[in-house]
């Protein structure tokens, strides 16, 4: 009897693990789009840090991301079990925060664009003292972890939708697997991106003769040359991703707007030859525009309250 019970237990465990693996694959596919935005956002969030401090900063953000998911997984399960109606409003608040941060960056760049021509660069200013460097890194890490929290919440919410009909144990295991895989994957890639210039420098110093050595040296020079442009590009892409993700969360929470965007995409899909491509791009553009407008309104309201508070 004991042997039979043990076999039944092992069979149940195997069945649960099979379900978790299958649901994890589905959830990973559904969250792939958010993963790309997450990668771009976090790569640009840790840019501007001194070369020797890049990996420690990425590791600090990764630890914060793990902590975010350690909070979000049980919180999502509790909210889903007791107050499922609160998931959408909470996600929308997070989406609005992303739009707010994105528009603040755009506004700051626009206001101070002329100052860059005469003032010291941000990196030169923070290198005045060790204290300034530490404060700069701390600010970068905090900002990246805040952004990661919103993106992690969306990933967890999407994954929760996949496993909603499963047992509580299967839900917990699936969300945990997704949380770990996504965090390791994103910050592993971020670490690789921020060290591209170091890889390029290493390749340029390869010694020897022959076509293979020459190839590696040319590749190294190419990486060194392209690294600054890549980081600048990620800064732009990351800011746009803030509006796309934040605006997407907001529009999905407003059914009329979401329906209008879907109908627009379906209508554009009928265009000959390029309809499929345009239908894929259009919702993202509309979400980004909606996010930009929402961010502008949020920043305006916040600035107004700040001025009123200072005037008191």
Q: For the report, how would you describe the main beta sheet?
A: none
Structural class: mainly alpha
**Tally of DSSP β-strands:** 0
Query: In terms of per-residue confidence, which ranges show pLDDT below 50 for 5 or more consecutive residues?
Result: 118-123
Helix percentage range: over 70%
Determine the mean pLDDT: 78
Order of helices and strands: HHHHHHHHHHH
Q: Per DSSP, what share of the residues sits in E-state strands of 2 or more residues?
A: under 5%
How large is the count of helical segments?
A: 11
Description:
With 312 residues, this protein is mainly α. Helix content is 85%, strand content 0%. Helix 1 (2-30) packs across helix 7 and helix 8 (196-204) runs antiparallel to helix 9. Mean pLDDT is 78; it is low at 118-123.
Layout of strands and helices, then pairs:
Blueprint: H1 2-30, H2 32-45, H3 54-82, H4 87-111, H5 122-126, H6 130-162, H7 168-194, H8 196-204, H9 211-253, H10 255-268, H11 275-311
